[in-house]
Amino acid sequence: MAAKESPGIEIGIYTLADIGADPLTGKTISAGQRVKEIIQAAKLADEAGLDVFGVGEHHRLDYASSSPAVLLAAIAQVTKQIRLTSTTSVLSTLDPVRLFEDFATLDLLSDGRAEILAGRGAFIESFPLFGYSTNDYDELFEEHLDLLLQLTQNETVTWSGKFRPSLRDAEIAPRPVQEKLPIWIGVGGTPESAVRAGRFGVGMALAILGGNPRRFKPLVDLYRQAGIDAGLTPETLKVGVTGHAYLAKTTQQAKDEFYPYYSNYWGYVNRQRGMGTRMSWDDFEHMASPDTALFVGSPQQVIEKILKQYELFGHQRFLAQLDIGGQPFKNVAKGIELLATEIAPIIRRETSK
């Protein structure tokens, strides 16, 4: 019997729902408008045939999404095929039972399209908000992940830990459409996180926002080895790559159009972190060069970058963040169209061989 041909890697987009002033017009849209545009972007991505749509979680006034499950539930009603994931759920400060039940409900609403991508969070504003201490950063994540995975496997759960009340024969409802709700862990660059994802047997999503992607290869190797050591088969260990992207007909056009927005984006993200640095055009040129992980360019240039990473990682999923820095929605819509029509078919063909 001939081997079944793989469909190639999944391709999608995600948003963190940042609200920034458009650097060209000085205008800032409302949180309400931002949320409506995100729902519209998901609808376009679904109609164009992309595989995955992700929504992030932040608890700040300059972001519009503190509840990915609620936004994704709205998106579920206007889409048909696209898989719906958080990118990421800050698991350290979320109650795992509440998180699971929200996404199990999303799974029912979407006929089995929900996933959870859990992370420790790049920002720490959710810790004081929900009464947790950053001193417990790692321990909280580990304990909450352990409970979350038990919830995906069992209708009734008995569990005890350090940070939340114990559960005794607790009924966990509703149950999702999918036999098991897919769980991924977002990994920013620490070997411990990669090993943890492998040990728990969940997917690993790498946030590669710049520089040479080669430096992430050791993390992928650690992840796969930890999974195999834990008794898992290589096929069950899934790797995803996420990164910033901007697409145009030519690479020069993409760079010219994107620079004001990308510089703006890093300007306000750095200010949020207490740094006042500004990105120069030379810095940007270097960040967008062919050997880096910033997906800015013509479809051909971006295809080459994705395939180069595929050679390195052999990953199963690629997600692009298209809507950063206060861009007008028309730019995002154009990016979705180019990703779906000119990039995805070639990537799927090349990675299905």
TrEMBL record:
Pfam family, one: Bac_luciferase
Xref: SUPFAM superfamilies: Bacterial luciferase-like
Keywords: Monooxygenase, Oxidoreductase
Molecular-function GO terms, alphabetical: monooxygenase activity; oxidoreductase activity, acting on paired donors, with incorporation or reduction of molecular oxygen
Keyword Protease applies: no
Keyword Cell membrane listed: no
Protein name according to UniProt: LLM class flavin-dependent oxidoreductase
Domain Luciferase-like span(s) in chain numbering: 10-312
Gene Ontology CC, one term: cytosol
